[in-house]
């Protein structure tokens, strides 16, 4: 009984956090990002009217910085709350996120899906998205690779998701004693709360695989 109550409390906390994250993400997308885009357009206009080459180059540099900032804010907005998740589904949401991820980190992400995609509850979709997101961020931080892939395998009662890279890998025992273990534990706990499972395997110089198994119903 105490364990069930603890799970419900943890689930409620995560749901509350997601609602607040959604609010911040919408503010970033609908207000801040739009303002940045307007500023970039203005800088491009100013650059076109400047005759002094030094000032023209400076305005161009500032416009380029603004463009990079817009990309980063867009990625942050999607990281916080992917709008496509509830409208187009998990695979489309990961494809959209992967494109922004590639533009930001320079790591190409191939997304493949086999079988017929099934409708997941909002909680399960978000849990899977968050774990995929965490796995990709870890690849950018630690894998030292320029390529990774996400494979969805849809069955009748469950979906399997594998996030794979061919980077430098790591010693699992060593990592479990470090701060990175907290992130791995968080991924597993998030999936456990929606009835799923998360496994991780890695080998030095051969890469890492994060595997998600999630019941559809």
From TrEMBL:
The entry's keywords: ATP-binding, Kinase, Nucleotide-binding, Transferase, Two-component regulatory system
E.C. numbers: 2.7.13.3
InterPro entries: HATPase_C_sf, HATPase_dom, His_kinase_dom, Sensor_HK_TwoCompSys, Sig_transdc_His_kin-like_C
GO terms of molecular function: ATP binding; protein histidine kinase activity
Domain Histidine kinase: 27-217
Catalytic activity: ATP + protein L-histidine = ADP + protein N-phospho-L-histidine
Entry's Gene Ontology BP terms: phosphorelay signal transduction system
Name of the protein described by the UniProt record: histidine kinase
Organism whose genome encodes this protein: Thalassobacillus cyri
């Amino acid at each position: 009984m105490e364990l069930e109550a603890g799970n419900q409390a943890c689930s409620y906390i995560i749901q509350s956090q997601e609602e607040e994250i959604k609010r911040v993400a919408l503010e970033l997308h609908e207000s801040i990002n739009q303002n940045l885009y307007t500023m970039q357009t203005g800088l491009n206009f100013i650059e076109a009217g400047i005759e002094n080459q030094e000032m023209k180059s400076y305005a161009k540099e500032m416009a380029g910085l603004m463009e990079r900032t817009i990309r980063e804010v867009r990625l942050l907005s999607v990281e916080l709350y992917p709008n496509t998740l509830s409208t187009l589904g998990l695979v489309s949401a990961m494809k959209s996120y992967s494109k922004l991820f590639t533009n930001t980190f320079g790591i190409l992400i191939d997304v493949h899906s086999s079988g017929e995609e099934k409708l997941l509850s909002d909680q399960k979709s978000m849990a899977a998205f968050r774990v995929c997101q965490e796995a990709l961020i870890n690849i950018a931080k630690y894998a030292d690779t320029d390529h990774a892939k996400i494979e969805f395998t849809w069955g009748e009662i469950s979906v399997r998701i594998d996030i794979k890279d061919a980077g430098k890998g790591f010693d699992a025992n060593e990592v479990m004693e470090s701060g990175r273990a907290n992130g791995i534990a968080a991924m597993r706990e998030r999936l456990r709360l929606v009835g799923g499972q998360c496994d991780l395997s890695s080998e030095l110089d051969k890469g890492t695989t994060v595997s998600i198994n999630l019941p559809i119903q």
